[in-house]
Amino acid sequence: MNLRAADISPVSFGWLRAAGAGLGFRRIADTDLAFLARLYASTRTSELAAFPWSEAEKAAFLDMQFHAQHTHYQSQHPQADRLVAMRAGEDIGRLYIERWPSQHCIIDIAFLPEHRGKGLGEALLRDLLDEAAAAGKDVSIHVEKFNPAMRLYRRLGFVTEEDKGVYDLMRWRAETAAVRTAYGWVSEA
Asked: What confidence score (pLDDT) does residue 176 get?
């Protein structure tokens, strides 16, 4: 399902938990690059804390890394929905997802630090899993091994499928989830 420019409400594409959490979405635009770079940098702050670089050197490194990642995502996932997540009119995160015939691939999901750990990511992920399950598709995502969200992914039923060095390729299987739900092995948060 590719979103149209007018689709800013998660309800319009079935993301009821995200809507209940107050999330809205819009497609990224070139005017969002500064926000997206700041968001990216916020995901790397603790990692770079140990480096003996000046703040200017860290900022230059993060800017370079962000632009490389952005270019890679654009070229490798041309059909992806690239969305800015908003809450109360404020840009707070991003979701990049590509829906392939065989699976849904979450390319990136991130929130600013002050919006992490508040259930927003879980609400959105549960909606994405419901969407994939309704289509009979698995969901994949690459997760850094020390990402605190790893616990959330595991709790939602993702399993590590392949060690990719710094990342684990994780997969949520629609078939397994349907069986677990049928037998009451999954609790709804």
From this structure: 76
Q: Taking Cα atoms as reference points, which of 76, 81, 70 lies closest to residue 25? A: 81
User: Mind listing the pLDDT tens digit for each residue in 66-119?
Assistant: 999 999 999 999 999 999 999 998 999 999 999 999 999 999 999 999 999 999
Give the amino acid at 20. Answer: G
The tokens 């490798």 sit on which residue? 76
Whether 87 maps to a domain, the answer reads yes
List the CATH number of the domain containing 129: 3.40.630.30
Cα 107 to Cα 29: distance, rounded to the nearest angstrom: 17
CA-wise closest residue to 136 among 100, 182, 109: 100
Find the domain containing 17 and state its range.
Answer: 10-28+80-182
